[in-house]
Amino acid sequence: MNKRIVVIGGGTGLSVLLRGLKTFPVDITAIVTVADDGGSSGRLRKELDVPPPGDIRNVLVALAEVEPLVEQLFQHRFENGNGLSGHSLGNLLLAGMTSITGDFANGISEISKVLNVRGKVLPAANRSVVLHAEMVDGSIVTGESTIPKSGKRIKRVFLTPEKIYALSECLRELKRADLIVLGPGSLYTSVLPNLLVPGIVETIVKSRAPKVYISNVMTQKGETDHYTAADHLEGILSHCGENVVDHILVHGTPVSESVKKKYALEDAAPVEVDEHKLKQSGVNVIRDHFVIENEDVLRHDAVKVSKALLNIMRENN
Fold it and tell me: Could you tell me which InterPro entries the record lists for this protein (predicted)?
């Protein structure tokens, strides 16, 4: 029987990793954030009162086993048309299937069949959540897309409404997991919104499976400016308590000058790996060359990261 891996996050980093993981004989469950409120997802969320489909769409496509043209169709974004402009077809299909089945998680499940998805894709909660950030100066900024634009340093993030429940299937898959992976993804706007859903962290802590956090390679403007790898880890521990991370996977070699220059235009810089501080937190540090540079864009090397994750799972089981 295949080992079970649960990956928690959102954004492009999660999709990149899943494309690599699905090439190995493992059972994958992706738990994906429903805090997105920008772009097409934000509009559908407001107009149709459905959870934001964007991150879910990208994960479905990453795990899909269909012809490239079908994938292209699902990701197609309309450029004009009254009301259609800016929407991706996949987002509209997810919204439509939610309306037909009366339930977001069921809608995802039905679309998964159409796309021949390898694994399970689950929303962290079965309803939209609103992400808020309390800044170091005490001010509160509301909205996942607004937080990085505030120009202030984040102290903590939290969710509303008060009555949010984790999808029972998420908790079941976490209990059965042989490995739990946090990230990759934006710390405060992709990874933590999942962990803040009541029930998720409690279930992770109780699990005997090894828990791995994949640290970001570059800082993000307005979110993790000047953060080291230990700062990223502290961001998770300060929100979730101890025993939620056993291992941290970090990219430990320099990136090229051309990449640095390109990212500097977005006020982003390589995340410094302060290994001594990480080890003081009691986590095991897995350090290697984990990225691919492609046209001055950095992406995790999905196959290499997947192999490192499978190695951790083997050593702990």
Answer: CofD, CofD-like_dom_sf, Gluconeogen_factor
CB neighbours (10 Å) of residue 48? 14
**pLDDT (tens digit, 9 = 90+) per residue, 114-152?**
999 999 999 999 888 999 999 999 999 999 999 999 989
Decide: 28 and 63 in contact? Cβ < 8 Å: yes
Quick one: which H or E segment has residue 182? strand 179-182
Which runs of consecutive H residues, i.e. helices, occur in 167-274?
Answer: 168-176, 192-195, 200-206, 229-240, 257-264
In sequence order, the 6+-apart residues with CB closer than 8 A to the CB of 253 are 288, 289
Confidence of residue 272 (pLDDT cuts 50, 70, 90): very high
Instruction: Say what the pTM is.
Output: 0.96
Q: Do the Cβ atoms of 216 and 228 come closer than 8 Å?
A: no
Token couple for 297:
């864009």
Distances (CA, A) of 197 to 58, 68, 161, 301: 21, 34, 11, 29
Looking at the DSSP bridge assignments, the partners of residue 4 are 27
Q: CB under 8 Å to 222, separation ≥6 — which residues?
A: 147, 148, 149, 150, 151
- DSSP 8-state secondary structure symbol assigned to residue 127: S
* Ordered domains of the chain (ranges, CATH): 3-34+165-316 (3.40.50.10680), 37-123 (no CATH)
